[in-house]
Amino acid sequence: MRTKAHTLLLKPGEVAARTLYMVNIFGWLRAPELGRFLSPGTDNSRKYAERMLRKLTAMRYVLPRKLPGQHAGTAYVVTARGAAWLRNHAVDDATTNTYREGTNWGRSQNGTWSPPPTWQHQVYVAGVLSLLYERGYEVISELELLRMAAGAKKHADGVAIGRDKDGDEFSIWIEVEQSRKTGKKLDEMLEAVVGAARGQPVTEYPTLPPVRAAFIAVPTRSFDERGYSIDHKARILSKIKRRGLASRVNFEIVGMLKEGVGVCLLDFETIDLPAMPPALAPEAARSLSRVSPADLR
Q1: I need a surface site. Which of 86, 103, 184, 218 has the fewest CB within 10 A?
Q2: What is the SS3 assignment for the chain?
Q3: Are 4 and 37 in contact (CB under 8 A)?
């Protein structure tokens, strides 16, 4: 017999309630990424998330949306009913306006639903943040950042909170690059990374610890529309060297190992670049040392 929504109960302290909250603060989530937030570092985290999502789906608090392509999985968004539950059980009244339904995510045409063009990028971002969470970082989604600084022209794809050797918290600006940015968009991303690494972010988030570091996450393997391999790291470093650096800068390039459409592993490489004039000669560029957060002119 099918379970009716009104026969199920959701209590504020249970895991299913946290599941609903996590889907809300990201806008939408798949089970693999969600599982890392609910049961970090365990082999059954995905199945655990799927169990919570089945309950919320039965209660009509979330709505499943099948993503396009093979092995892309299912995205879950919060319904009006789920958003109402979150508002009614908010710990802080000031946060109630952040609980909104996500059923208008994507578009429907002639009875067929499709996600927005950015959905693949959002899967990567959720994957990076969930894997950082498993490593012990507190993470903040882009949707939360948009609410913190609504009028800003540029936002990080996410923020992670770390601690220095003295135990003081600091924020890490995160950019996820998988679309082969060029021109102005690439410049804006690198300016944001360099500024964050210097402790001078292009956007301030007053409720978070000061931004003092930056990560750029890139696929370990990527191909363009012609099937040619893309070396994101080489493109990023080449652009920085062409523009020059006014002072030394270090940041992390984080390699994203993909599994299906998601990210299953992160590989960290610290990049340390000295001050250099614009259009650095190729011979000098080859002598640059590797090492970690960032600085454009």
Answers
A1: 184
A2: CCCCHHHCCCCCCCHHHHHHHHHHHHCCECHHHHHHHHCCCCCCHHHHHHHHHHHHHHCCCEEEEECCCCCCCEEEEECHHHHHHHHHCCCCHHHHHHCCCCCCCCEEECCEEECCCCHHHHHHHHHHHHHHHHCCCEEEEHHHHHHHCCCCCCCCCEEEEEECCCCCEEEEEEEECCCCCCHHHHHHHHHHHHHHHCCCCCCCCCCCCCEEEEEEEEECCCECCCCCECCHHHHHHHHHHHHCECCCEEEEEEEEEEECCEEEEEEEEEEEECCECCCCCHHHHHCCCCCCCCCCC
A3: no
Contact in structure between 267 and 253 (CB atoms under 8 Å)? no
More confident residue, 116 or 91: 116
The per-residue pLDDT for range 203-215, each reduced to its tens digit, is: 999 999 999 999 9
If you search the block for the tokens 């908010």, which residue do you land on? 90
Tokens of 76: 């879950």
Whole-angstrom distance, CA of residue 120 vs CA of residue 208: 27
Mean pLDDT within 116-123? 94
Pairing of the two strands 169-176 and 211-219: parallel
Over pLDDT 70: what percentage of the chain? 85
Quick check: 13 and 113 in contact, CB under 8 A?
no
> Identity (one letter) of the amino acid at 112?
T
Q: Are β-strands 107-109 and 112-114 bridged in parallel, bridged antiparallel, or unpaired?
A: antiparallel
- Could you say which of 2.40.50.140, 3.90.550.10, 2.40.30.70, 1.10.10.10 is the CATH number of the domain covering 5-114? 1.10.10.10
Which tokens sit at 32?
A: 């693999």
Q: Please tell me the pTM assigned to this model.
A: 0.88
Q: Which CATH architecture describes the domain 119-286?
A: 3-Layer(aba) Sandwich (3.40)
